[in-house]
Amino acid sequence: MLNHSGIAVVIGASQGIGLAMVKDLLARPQVKRVYAASRHAMLSVPLGTLTEEYGDRLQVLSLDSTQESDIASLANEVRERDQRLHWLINCAGLLHDSARNIRPEKRLEQIDMAQLEAIFRINTFAPILLAKHFLALLNHDQPACFASISARVGSISDNHLGGWYSYRASKAAQNQFIKTFAIEAERRAPNLTCLALHPGTTDTGLSKPFQKNVPQEKLFSTTFVAERLLDIVFSRPAADSGKFLAWDNSEITW
Predict the structure, then answer these.
(1) I want to staple 11 with a disulfide (CB 3.0 to 4.6 A). Which of 84, 90, 107, 227 is the partner?
(2) Is 74 in contact with 37 (CB distance < 8 Å)?
């Protein structure tokens, strides 16, 4: 566990779990600076308010995580200012989007190529491209962590209901990317912990249409989830790299 000032990057930082992560990180004394990045970060009122409060400790940056050039530019920004990174947390994800007619499939006939591509670009391709461009910054003589928000529905062995083809498959593929990255990082960056994290059902726009049958005690606030997941990020050693963990620190089968 890092016991002195470190640098954090949060992807998908303008709302939901990502925004709660930024707030929590800024409240932790061992965090020297937070880079908050998302497609609409510069338009986010909450991030603007946090910038006024925390000044240079918070850097708000625009990022389209489906564009590799944007990811490379963000990595260069961190490198120029801070030279190294201690925590990268990817919170960006896509389940539905009414503007693009994207919604979870219930039947095979609802599978659509454009929807498959859109969901995989954010949920699967973005995390591994982040790993590609940030590995050098995370590889140093101090503990570091690369964590990406996954979902229990991405577990193949835990799939008992079917449906949600694009989302399930994109998260399962992300998990494989994280596991494979962890194996390579063990050789190249021995102080780095790579984790796939399941936040539970969280009260965000992503889960809003699907909360009807969720018991109140199992619908978590973003503040609660951010705290629980960051406690995992801050405590799990490199020996645990490559694990798929739930918000309560329990391990999920692949």
Answers:
(1) 90
(2) yes
Q: Which of 54, 11, 15 is nearest to 31 (CA)?
A: 54
pTM of the model: 0.94
State the average pLDDT over residues 214-226. Answer: 81
Per-residue pLDDT at 158: 94
- Contact of 58 with 50, CB cutoff 8 Å: yes
- What distance in Å separates the CA atoms of residue 240 and residue 102, rounded to the nearest whole number? 35
First-residue to last-residue Cα distance in the chain: 26
Q: Which domain holds residue 180?
A: 6-246
Strands 6-11 and 87-90: parallel
Closest by CA to 23, choosing from 1, 49, 42, is 49
Q: Is 1 inside any structural domain?
A: no
Give the mean pLDDT of 131-150.
98
CA distance 20 to 22: 5
CA distance 92 to 151: 12
CATH of the domain at 186: 3.40.50.720
Helix axes 16-26, 45-54, angle to 10 degrees: 10
Q: Examine residue 251 and state whether it is found in any structural domain, yes or no.
A: no
Q: Which tokens in the block code for residue 149?
A: 């928000």
**DSSP E strand stretches across the chain:** 6-11, 31-38, 58-62, 87-90, 144-149, 192-198, 243-246
Domain presence at residue 129: yes
